[in-house]
Amino acid sequence: MFGSCKQEVLHSGDLIFIASESSDFEKSIVEVTKTKDKTLNFTHVGIINITDSGIFVIEAVPEKGVVYTRLQEFKNENKKGMLYVGMLKSKYKKHTSNALSRALTHLGKEYDYAFDLENDLYYCSELVYDAYAYASGDPYFFETPAMTFKKEGTDEVLPYWAGYFEKLGVTIPEGKPGVNPTGLSGSDKIRNFVFQHRDTENTERHREKSKLCETLRPLCLCAENPIIKNNKTN
Asked: Cα–Cα distance between 93 and 111 in angstroms, integer?
């Protein structure tokens, strides 16, 4: 299954996910968004946009806000993680153009540290959620389950998140609707995943994890020469 690198098609509107636990922020995201039926958890997501100028990722990043990043730069900035591409099912691709247009209108807006769906700031998965909710006219295009910041099986907020929200000076949004990369990855709107190899140590680690993930198709996306479908946007 992993022996050879198979080229896969990239489409505008596909979602690009990062699986990484290289920082306390990422580890804490995994702690409160991991699912019982998946061993591979994601900490970041963006939207692929293919133009005449190249391949870009529209993403919301702490300290930067909503930005437009070249794919190669995106990969370089996420060297410590593993990249996966989630392809939308064919019947939902009609929303791609409007979703990209919507996401692009948010460029330059600040990052939503408070994880609040009601303000005009955006965190990574919120940007994806907003783009496709707007494009489809369906606020439930992607699910918005109740958020939790508590240690699993307890009523105790994890110390990291208690300190995080205290510094922000906002109430912990426990139980409020939200979205997260791992939750998006399990959406029934996504057809499959394309596996993106990284360094040998990380590849082997995630290869073992992905064997247990029923929603993942661990195929290799050639980093230097992906096939690009003729679906460019301006």
From this structure: 27
Inside any domain, residue 161: no
150 in a domain, yes or no? no
Integer Cα distance of 67 and 61 in angstroms: 7
Name which of 205, 199, 207 is nearest 223 in CA terms: 199
Q: What is the pLDDT of residue 210?
A: 43
Please give the Cα distance from 90 to 213 (Å, whole number).
22
Q: Which two tokens stand for residue 53?
A: 């100028």
CATH number for 210: 3.90.1720.10
In 3D space, the residue among 179, 63, 185, 187 whose CA is nearest the CA of residue 125 turns out to be 179
Which domain range does residue 72 map to? 9-143+177-228
- pLDDT, tens digit, for every residue of 9-64? 788 999 999 999 889 999 999 999 987 665 678 999 999 999 999 999 999 999 99
Does a structural domain hold residue 120? yes
Question: What type of residue sits at position 12?
Answer: S
Number of domains forming the structure of the chain: 1
Contacts of 136 (CB under 8 A, 6+ apart): 92, 95, 99
Contact (CB, 8 A) for 186 and 213: no
Question: Strand, coil or helix: what is 43?
Answer: coil
User: What tokens does 103 get?
Assistant: 């996401």
Looking at the DSSP assignment, which residues form a beta bridge with residue 190? 88
Give pTM, 2 decimals: 0.83
Low-confidence ranges of the chain (pLDDT < 50): 1-7, 197-228, 230, 234
Q: How far apart are CA 193 and CA 205, in angstroms?
A: 17
What H or E segment, with its residue span, contains residue 29? Answer: helix 24-33
